[in-house]
């Protein structure tokens, strides 16, 4: 007797995703850039083509390819059927109807310094931010801190000033900034939120490269937010990544467990361009003018001061 195959009606299991791509190290050849421009929606292709510097165009492209690869691989939506839109605040969202299977699926991307990064969660609010520690574009470090005075609380400034030298203070500054931005992006409020309302008690003071920590605590309007947890990772000596994980489903239990363990997974997986486009299907015909425009631009603006120590 012939027995038909058993078809599972259960929703596929999706785990947390943490990806990084070094767009600074990516030097696309003509073939790769023309392919990349065919793999994003026409409005995004136009937007990417308007960047003045190739660094910014590569960063924006990396963010879109990370999102599309995530959706194609984890949600099993064919690449050419993925429809991305932006909220009024500019946050990328998936417009495809997922039904109830992934009603709480959430993702976020960030790019700054040398990397584009992505975090995705099946059941929780998520926001991600990356910051590269660098010297101010002009002026001294104390002058820069005075300009940014209102962005942090007195307790946070004490933490920033407690480390030994100006470079380490800058490093601690950018760590706090990434944490604040990750929360703002998770709740989707955009510019205008008073950053003095949120305060971080960072722990541990030193983070080892490649490890992920979640001991840092956030206070909102003076009250500890126990239903939020924050993952912190150093991708290298100068890049901080913060991932804000918000309340949803049974998140309170997960948050408690994470804080007691002190470290959590997943760690970031560093992807290559080949990884990003492995399942890709072009959306538009090849446009040679995209390469002519891209290859004629300067990589990045010339700075008067060095970013090195």
How much helical structure, as a percent, in the residues? 25-40%
Number of helices: 9
Characterize the main sheet: 4 strands, mixed
Low-confidence stretches: 1-11, 249-264, 304-309
If you compute it from the alpha carbons, what radius of gyration comes out, rounded to the nearest whole angstrom?
21 Å
For the secondary structure, the number of strands is 13
List SSEs in N-to-C order: EHHHEEEEEHHHEEEEEEHEHH
User: Beta-sheet strand percentage?
Assistant: 15-25%
State the end-to-end CA separation: 75 Å
Structural class from helices and strands? alpha+beta
Characterize the overall form.
Answer: globular
Spatial strand order of the main sheet: 4-5-1-13
Question: Mean of residue pLDDT?
Answer: 86
What is shown here, in short?
The chain has 309 residues and is of the alpha+beta class. It is built from 9 helices and 13 strands.
Describe the secondary-structure layout.
Layout: E1 17-22, H1 30-38, H2 42-49, H3 54-74, E2 84-86, E3 92-94, E4 106-112, E5 115-121, E6 126-132, H4 141-147, H5 154-161, H6 166-187, E7 198-201, E8 212-213, E9 217-220, E10 223-224, E11 229-234, E12 239-245, H7 251-261, E13 269-271, H8 273-276, H9 289-295
Parallel strand pairs: 1-13
Antiparallel strand pairs: 1-5, 2-3, 4-5, 6-12, 7-9, 8-11, 9-10, 11-12
Helix pairs in contact: 1-9, 5-6
